[in-house]
Design brief:
homodimer, four-stranded antiparallel beta sheet, six-stranded mixed beta sheet, alpha/beta, Aminopeptidase, 20% strand, 439 residues
């Protein structure tokens, strides 16, 4: 029955990047929650699709657990690489194949299954549940802060469970305690009203040179960020976090093979590699373009040059403050003519290793999957987790029903049905333990 | 009749960038030349369309004049901006509208008209004529050196007339004596087999950073080329050339208005502006691209970054030698991993101001157009003129029947019929004067 519900949810397209089916999906998710017993509200931000907010008070417990999920999915392209149509939700070989099956509809239904089991068995849930399901996670949650501001008083609780999580390549349960933050910036330099014959390059300024020179001031040749004060507030790993990092499985080899790289930056390897991967702020050119980029040779003096950069942030770095430092840096280096367009900003989120919810999640994972769990101090990726950890002050763990070969964001995304069911048990055990009074 | 011949030639598409109609156009051009009285040969390079080579010996003169033209045209896109279909050759308001009407089919037929007139009036031409018409000028003449190597012994002569030329914005006849050279280079940096999640930027090298850093070593912030020895062989303007430049009309104001720029590089203005425009070697980023360049924000660690650069060269700079210096520069600055792909190379061409053909062209222009001619020591643009000036040793002038608003390379390209006819008379007067023994 829950597999069928997952199929029904997967068959409803919900591509936020293409504004496809979002309202319908919000309605469907709301319907499923209502049918289970939740009190459901739809929050309509000033722009963008509804955010589903649902509550289920416990008749026996006083503690409160908050869930975060998202109902939107990544675009399905390239279509030709899918074995089955991406919204067909075909079941094959013990897996449901669909865009969103893993990220994040599988987790929504898997959690619903846990809650349903409690209600069936006991008529209630052991603790109060609050559930937030947004529809713009895949495009950077642009209207989520509006929701948080509006619902802050109602989102009080004791801990939170994040949208994703599951098993690694060796089927070990993963407990992730944090995400890096993000400052996403687009730079634009325009030096003329239109492109020109490049014979004029002797006298007319080329914006691509200007952009190149500006970018070259942002990092040094070792990749260190040269913006004044960028590292000022960085909180180093605690001794406990360093120990956990030492115990984290090494991704070095798999990245090296997958990308065909011989050496990593700075010649990093082993523990130092892991420490940098999880702990270093980054400055990444995600895109750069100017002039003629087609085949063959064409001589043109471009009028506009642009670049996109994502800066990953670590705990205590404030993206708003850093955006200011970046602007100051440009002025100081005489690039005040370069336009800076902030596209997204999120601080990092990190829950302490000794948080009760972290320990419960690890213990329950060991019990359900019969494998030693891996605690990830942080993911190297980013997301809006800080609203929960920082703004709402909720210790937060990411656990769920994903598996390592689920092809998240790629063709043939899938949900392993066995992990879907076990992930549900994992969440149930966490709810159960969490509902008990802390010792 | 010659307007009809121009229409017929314009109605035959010949877009070299799209390999469209080139063989048919070569045949048609050859047919027109044969019908006029030329002995025509087709040279088939190892790749690419035929080069038409035609000869018309004089029965009365011993001197030899060589013409260079091209029968290929630029692509017609964007189609929607044309008032009439680009290959319709519609006559309207005293102009023939067509892609190629001005560049370069108008000049071919206008010259044919001159020669025809001599033959009709006297049964011969006053000097020997040789005519080269290639079909790849618009894509950088990739197979022209093959032709020159093969035909060098047969291309002997006393002077040459280049493909283009005509009237400026004030209908003054222009006599152009040179072109800048060109080194066109594509750079490519690859740091991984495929694009990656940008969370990995903490440990995996980003090729866009590498490219940016490499490019930033090529010029300094004033735009001066920092490749060691780049300016070593630059031949400065002669006193005579400087005087001619002083007399050249100032393009400063029109470029400023067209491009909406407030100041030129280095704050150049007046004589210094002109000297830089015509005399400075350039290093232009014609294109740069890496990663995600679409709308919105996407976080990706690119695996490849590329750039295209055109370097304009001035007399005595050797593009092959400079390409070597560029490679050395990359090694010296530890960018040996950056791939360098040479796409085209041409040295500069410049005919001395006191060349007899230059004086004849100016005098004849004054006579035909009744305006003081303007001698351009060089154009700031490039082309394969050096094969004529340097390899064949022919003093060369660019004169013709173009006008300032002919929309060359743009939509609604056109040929003013009055200039077409007068340009024919200009060439005829030059042939006549040139045929006389030098005094």
């Amino acid at each position: 029955m829950f597999v069928e519900q997952l199929q029904a949810l997967c068959r409803q397209p919900s591509v936020s990047a293409q504004n496809l089916g979002l309202y319908e999906t919000a309605e469907l998710v709301g319907k499923f929650l209502k049918e289970t017993g939740f009190i459901v509200e739809m929050f309509s931000p000033s722009k963008g699709p509804p955010i589903v907010f649902a509550e289920l008070p416990s008749r026996i417990g006083t503690r409160t657990l908050v869930f975060y999920n998202h109902y939107d999915v990544q675009p399905v392209e390239p279509l030709e690489l899918w074995k089955n149509p991406p919204f067909s939700a075909t079941v094959d070989d013990g897996k449901v194949y669909a865009r969103g099956a893993s990220d994040n509809k599988g987790n929504i239904i898997s959690r619903l299954m846990s809650i349903s089991a409690f209600l069936k068995a006991t008529g209630t849930v052991p603790c109060n549940l609050k559930w937030v399901i947004e529809g713009e996670e895949e495009i950077g949650s642009p209207h989520f802060s509006e929701f948080i501001t509006r619902y802050k008083e109602r989102l009080t609780g004791d801990s939170a469970i994040w949208e994703f999580g599951g098993l690694d390549y060796e089927d070990r349960p993963l407990v992730t305690l944090g995400l890096k933050g993000m400052l996403y910036v687009e730079f634009r330099v325009q030096t003329a009203l239109k492109d020109s014959h490049s014979a004029r390059a002797a006298v007319v300024e080329n914006p691509a040179w200007r952009l190149v020179r500006m970018l070259d001031t942002i990092t040094d040749e070792d990749g260190r960020i040269m913006v004044e004060g960028w590292y000022d507030d960085v909180r180093p790993f605690t001794q406990e976090e360093l120990e956990a990092i030492r115990a984290m499985p090494l991704e070095e080899h798999s990245i090296r093979d997958e990308l065909g790289v011989k050496n990593f930056l700075f010649g990093l390897t082993g523990f130092e590699f892991k420490k940098a991967f999880y702990g270093n702020p980054t400055a990444n050119i995600a895109g750069i373009w100017s002039g003629y980029t087609g085949p063959g040779h064409k001589t043109v003096l471009p009028s506009v040059a642009q670049a996109k950069m994502d800066f990953r942030l670590v705990p205590n770095q404030d993206p708003v403050k850093l955006a200011g430092k970046l602007r100051q840096h440009l002025v100081r280096h005489e690039f005040a003519d370069v336009e800076v367009n902030l596209q997204a900003e999120n601080p990092a989120a990190r829950t302490p290793i000794d948080a009760r919810i972290a320990k419960i999640a690890a213990r329950a994972g060991r019990e359900v999957f019969r494998k030693e769990p891996v605690t990830l101090v942080t993911s190297a990726a980013s997301g809006p987790m800080h609203y929960f950890t920082n703004t709402l002050g909720l210790p937060t763990v990411a656990i769920g029903c994903n598996h390592a070969k689920s092809n998240t964001h790629a063709p043939n995304e899938n949900q392993r049905i066995d992990v879907f069911v076990k992930g549900s048990k994992w969440i149930a055990r966490v709810i159960e333990e969490f509902a008990k009074p802390p010792t």
